[in-house]
Amino acid sequence: KLALEISLERGDLRDVAQRRSNVAHGYNELGAYELAEKELLEAEAAAERLGIAHVAALVRLNLGWTSYRRGEIAKARRLIDGSVAEFARMGNSRLEVGALGYLAHVLLRAGEPAAADAAMTRALVLEAPAGEHLFVHATRALARVALGRIDEALTDARRAAQMLAEQGAVHEGGVQVRVACAETLHAAGQIDEALQALAVARESVESE
Predict the structure, then answer these.
(1) Distance between CA atoms of 179 and 37, rounded to whole angstroms?
(2) Could you give the CA distance from residue 58 to residue 86 in angstroms, rounded to a whole number?
(3) Among 24, 49, 78, 155, which is 20 to 30 Å from 18 by CA?
(4) Can you say how many angstroms the Cα of residue 194 is from the centroid of all Cα atoms in its chain?
(5) Helix axes 53-69, 93-109, angle to 10 degrees
(6) Largest CA distance in the chain
(7) Which helix (H) or strand (E) holds 186?
């Protein structure tokens, strides 16, 4: 919020759009979805006015995620689908992979695990940092659990866990990955491993 105020004081309108998006992310994490949406709509208007296409697309992606967090699944799907298409047109595979990950969560909530699995399989063939593909494997594991493809889900979950360990440091979003792995292990009947994964996730939260 302070960084946003500094950018506003300086009149740095390009930076303001990005800063508003960052502030909205914080509001989302706090569950303040109306405040998040307000910041994002202002950021979208600024990015469109300045012709910053990639920032506008990213803001719309975050608007979609805010809608998802509010339970507005149809709206979330429309916004995130649009962002996926925009990033694909731009040739920005890193952001396309991230958007596909958001889309997969929306599809799972909508009861469409096959579509979520397809989105994650598509994401894995796109070039992106290892950290992005880590989340792809964890999310595809959840989709495959929902489809009853437990062995394949376990393969994805173990790959995600391995990639997380290879990061070396505490990875942002590592808790969510470990929880996804725990759900997969539980579905496979590997209760002790699932409990261990949850314990590690809890320790990560408590250490933050």
Answers:
(1) 27
(2) 9
(3) 78
(4) 22
(5) 20
(6) 57
(7) helix 174-187
C-alpha span between 73 and 77 (Å, rounded):
6
How far is residue 66's CA from residue 75's CA, in Å, rounded to a whole number?
A: 10
Phi, psi of 128 (to 5 degrees): -165, 160
pLDDT single digits (tens) 169-207: 455 678 889 999 999 999 999 999 999 989 988 887 766
| Look-up of token digits 């500094």 | 6
CA distances from residue 197 to 4, 84, 113, 157, 203 in whole angstroms, order as listed: 37, 31, 23, 11, 10
Structure tokens at 98: 């991230």
In which residue are the tokens 């491993």 written? Answer: 193
Residue type, 123: A
Contact 69, 46 (CB under 8 A): no
Enumerate the H helices of 147-173 as residue ranges.
150-166
The amino acid present at 24, given as its one-letter code, is A
Of 174, 118, 123, 160, the closest CA to residue 143 belongs to: 118
pTM score: 0.86
